[in-house]
Structures are given as structure tokens and as C-alpha cells.
Amino acid sequence: MNTIDLTASFKAYDVRGIVGETITEDTVRATAAAFVDVLELAGQNILVGSDMRPSGSDFVNAFAEGATARGANIIKIGLISTDELYFACGVENAAGVTFTASHNPAEYNGMKMAKAGAVPISSETGLFDVRDLAQQYLNAGEIPQSETQGTVSEKDILKDYAEYLRNLVDLSNIRPLKVVVDAGNGMGGMTTPAVLGDSILPGLPLDIVPLYFELDGSFPNHPANPLEPANLVDLQKAVVEHGADIGLAFDGDADRCFVIDEKGQPVSPSAITAIVAEREIKRAQSEGEAEPVIIYNLITSKAVPELVEKLGGRSVKTRVGHSFIKAVMASEGGIFGGEHSAHYYFKDFFNADTGMLAAMHVLAVLGNSEKQLSEIGAEYQPYFSPGEINSEVEDKDAAIARVREALGDSVEVSEMDGTTFEHKTEGWWVNLRPSNTEPFLRMNLEAPDQAAMERVRDEILALVRA
Questions:
Q1: Known catalytic residues?
Q2: Helix (H/G/I), strand (E/B), else coil: 179
Q3: Residues 309 and 371 placed together within one structural domain of the fold
Q4: pLDDT in tens, 207-218
Q5: I need a surface site. Which of 4, 261, 270, 412 has the fewest CB within 10 A?
Q6: Could you report the per-residue pLDDT of 427-463, keeping only the tens digit for each?
């Protein structure tokens, strides 16, 4: 009798669990059948791939069994980054699934799903319906067989993906750049040589210095989560030691990219958002778009909307989270969107996120300038931030109430996502967001100078942790 409760692995935007405990071949098989039924995919193609985690290939096979039993046709697309899945779903106009747990540790695996055209699926758009039907199939111990069984075929999409990206950003005539890339033993170790190197396409004026390109889901060198500063240390050292112009760090499934300047210092994702936004706005304007729309989440630097307005574009603020960004990209006709977590979304990439394309835009800016990246980054990063700070707080509402009371009428208050306090005269803002999954209150803030940032940080933390 099944004892696995799928509510443990189905999250708001994807499926993620511990292999052999909350995600197994049986749960995958049932999820595949439910995916076909809920999205009405019988007789249609579903693209299925995986990252380099050891359980990936077995899960792909289990998914194929469950989906073909319900009449869908499976196209196995092999080892892929998550943005390769979005590319394939967009180009093929087919639903798809990749097995990945992104930056989570080795014992995890999961599923990221998309509808045809790379449209995201979340708890609000069918994911929990898939979960509930899969639980029924799992509890019953069998999947009902469709009258017509689906087929299984294979297709390699890496070259098409690389060509597609190169057609969006031309790097063939930039000045030569030395680029250190830390793939963290994740899928960037496969996509970087294909897109930026010469493993499939002609070489570019890029001298790639590889760090941890071997695909290894046990992550022997460091966790594939560049959001944590400790996981950037090797890249920062290598950039300085090699005298490189830039460093790039990808997460495990290579849909996020973090950037390091020639001094070994991180360039904030807000600055990267501004850099790419400027390129995309100017390109859209040259093609006749009067007021290009840029999407950003509410804890991105206000330098982004300020730049967008200055360039004649329109900025739209959204909640944190990729499903919100993608939905607003579609509804507002956004050409580009960026998040503080280094997810970057492109209209030309089916409104989906791709770290590689964002990296190519930054390489284009750097390669067409005589300035160093630290100089360029400083131009787009005029404000000061301590980064996200988490406080373990039992009563999060009470902590926010203390801050609200202390700040009084000196601030404007917004409750779009958590609570944002923006000072009316001093030019700083702070956002407090309760974690949905942990006993943390997350604080992000920004101020016009270092002293003000440190003062506000300390004052707010004292109130939060009182």
C-alpha cells in the first residue's frame, strides 16, 4: 500500500523531494499519467529531459511509462539545462518536463514542468490538480491504460538551443575576453562549451577558463547554489589568478547566472538587470516599439525603474517568484524581466528565464566597451544594500508591527509582497517578507549611501529581533 504523501514534494511552482523517500519511480509514473490527463495531452508530444543527477535517467523512463500509458507521445531530449526545456517547449510548442532539483543538495531530485509554448504551470494553474490525480493513481496502485498507447522517441536539442541564443546576441565581433565559468558540476558544464565555446559551433573571441565542468550530481566541489557567497569563492579567486575580464557562475540546472567582475567582486543581479534592460530597450526602440516594458520584482534596486523611465521605457513592479514574473511578462507585453535571485526573463525566449542569454548580453556590453566590468557595474549600481538578511522569528506579524509603529508617518507602506517601508525624504526602503516554508523573516533594504544603509539595517534588525 502506498504511504507517500505527494503534498510533501509538490511545491507552488515545481516538484522537489528526497530520492527514494518523497520522490520515487512510482510517484513519477503516477505524476506523468496525471500530467497527461489534467493537461489533456493524450495524442500530443511531451518533451522530457533531466539534469546530471544520478536518478534522472530512471525518472525519465518512469515518466515515459506513465505518460504513454495515458496516450501521450514522449520525446526524450536527454541531458538538459532547465532553460533548454523552455526553449524546446517554445520551439516545438509542446508541454515538457525536466528532472532537476536546481541548487538543492545531491539527495534531492524533482520536476520542473511547462505547458506548450513554455507557459509555466504552478499551483494556481494546474500543478495541484496534477498532484491530486497522481495521488489517486498512486493509492490505487495502478494507472488505467489508454486504448491507444503513446510512443517514445529521442531528439537532441543542444545545437538548436546554442544557435538560437547566438542569433539573439551576436558576440562574433567583440574584443577578446577571458571568461572564467564555474559550472558547479551542473549543466552549465555542457551548455557553456556549446553556446560560448567551440564544441558545436564556430568559436567566439572568448577564452573560456572552466571550473568544475564535469557533470556530477554529487556536487563534489561545492553546492551548485551561487546565491550563497561561500559558493562563489573559488570563482572569485580564479578570476583574479587568471587575470580574467569576467566570471560567470551557474546553478545546478543552469537557469540562473551570477556575474563576477575582474576584481573578483560580485556584480549585483539588480545591476545585471539594468544592464540588460538598457540593451533590450534600445533594441526594441530601434524596431519601432514606443514604450518597451521591463518587469522587475519589488526587492530589485530602484536603480532599475529609474533607468527604464530615463530611457523612455515603462517599468512594472511584481511580486517575487518566477510564475508571477512570467505571468506579468505575458499580460504586460514585457520584453525583459529581472529578479534579485539572478533569474532573467526574455520575451524573445518565450517569456522564460535563461541565465545563459543574460550572460551573453553582459559579455556583449563588456566586449563592446573599453571599460572594465567593475566600472560598468558601478554605473548601474548607485545604491547600497547588505543583501538579504534572514532573522528567525516566531511571531513574524508582531515583528513587522514593531517596525511599522517605530517608523510611523515617516514612510510610505506597501503590502504587495510582505511589507515595504519607503522613507519619504531619506531615499531608503526596506522590505520584510515572511518565508512560506521556514521560521524566517527576510529583510531586503537599499539606501543612497553606505552609512545610511548600515544605520537602517541595524535599526530595523533590532526591532525585528526584539
A1: 102
A2: strand
A3: yes
A4: 999 999 999 999
A5: 412
A6: 999 999 998 667 899 999 999 999 999 999 999 999 9
